[in-house]
Amino acid sequence: MLRDLSLAAKAACSKEDQESLVPMVKKLRDLGEVAFKRGLLALEGELMQIQDPFLKLGVQLIVDKTEPENVQDILDSDIYYNESNGRELLKKIILREGLLRIQAGDNARNILICTKVFLGKADSSLW
Length: 127
Known about the structure:
Elements: H1 5-10, H2 15-19, H3 22-38, H4 53-63, H5 68-81, H6 86-104, H7 108-116
Helix pairs in contact: 3-6, 3-7, 4-5, 4-6, 5-6, 6-7
């Protein structure tokens, strides 16, 4: 999990922006369920439906059996060097966390718990 206070400050956004990321967190949960039940290679069948470039990159790296440290390095590099902030940066941080947990074999419930924590102000009724 990223624990960089300056990055966290750059990722600050409104409650509405946080709530707009709830579907993405649910998507991570769903991808985690696919991977947990059918294996990481089953995620290849999900690639065509993924529109977000950062998520698509991460899933492709996982499907390609890229070493976990390399996946983390690539995603971290995008986060740190592509000048994102606010909602977009928060989205990338959440996606990174979810993707690394999917690759590690976490179950869908743990993925949901560990990604929705970033949306602390999001309305709990959305879950």
